[in-house]
Amino acid sequence: KTDTLNVSYNDGWVTRVATQGLSATATGGQQAQPAVLSIGAVSFPATTIGSTSSVVTATVTNTGGSAGVISSRTLTTGTNFAITGGTCTTSSSVAVSGTCTVTMTFSPTGEAGTKNDTLNVGYNDGTAAQTATLAISGTANAQQSTAAVLAIGSVSFPSTVVGNTSAPVTATVT
C-alpha cells in the first residue's frame, strides 16, 4: 500500500509543505491449518454367526493444525457391525494432536466368511465438513452343530417257537 504524507509548517518567513512518500506491506499471522482426522486400524476377533464379539476400540487422531469438531459417526451398512460408544460424540472437539475413540462390536449374520463395512467419522476441520473413514472387517465362523448321540440298552427276548411272535419287550433309549 502506498500513500503520501504532507506536513505544513512555517519556517518563520513563509509557510512551507514537506512531502514524503510512504509505502507499507501488510503482514499477518500465519493462518491456522485445518484439522485432519485419521482413524487407526482395528482387528475384530473371529466370531460365530449369531454371537457378538468383544468390544473393539478405534482411535481417531487429529494430525492437523486446528481442533476438529465431530459431527457424526456412522457405519456404511451397519449390517454386521455396531457402534457401541466411545468419546468421539457429536459436537465433541478433538484438539491438535488429540484423540477420541469409537467403540464397536461384530455380530455376524448369514453365511460364514469375511464381513466388511466402513466406519465414517464426520467432522468440521475449521473451514469445511470432512469425513475420516476406516475399512473394517471380521471373520464369521459357522455355528457348531451338536449331534445327539443315542444308545439302546441290552434287550433280552424270551424263548419263542419258530414262526410264533414273542411277548413284547421294552427297550430303553438314552
- Give the DSSP E fraction (strand runs of 2 or more residues): 35-45%
Oligomeric state of the chains? single chain
- The geometry reads as rod-shaped
Return Rg in Å: 39 Å
Write the H/E string, N to C. EEEEEEEEEEE
Q: Total number of β-strand segments?
A: 11
Number of helices: 0
Overall pLDDT confidence: 88
Distance between the termini: 101 Å
Report the helical percentage.
under 10%
**Largest sheet, order of strands side by side?**
4-11-10-6-8
Unreliable stretches:
none
Structural class, by secondary structure, is mainly beta
Largest sheet: 5 strands, mixed
Describe this protein's structure:
This protein has 174 residues and is mostly beta strands. Helices cover 0% and strands 45% of the residues. The strands form three sheets. It has a five-stranded mixed beta sheet with strand order 4-11-10-6-8, with no helix packed on it. Strand 1 (2-10) and strand 2 form a beta hairpin. The mean pLDDT is 88.
Give a summary of the structure in a few sentences:
The chain has 174 residues and is mostly beta strands. It has strands spanning 2-10, 15-23, 37-39, 47-48, 56-62, 68-75, 81-85, 93-94, 99-106, 113-124, 129-141.
What's the SSE blueprint?
Elements: E1 2-10, E2 15-23, E3 37-39, E4 47-48, E5 56-62, E6 68-75, E7 81-85, E8 93-94, E9 99-106, E10 113-124, E11 129-141
Parallel strand pairs: 4-11
Antiparallel strand pairs: 1-2, 3-5, 5-9, 6-8, 6-10, 7-9, 10-11
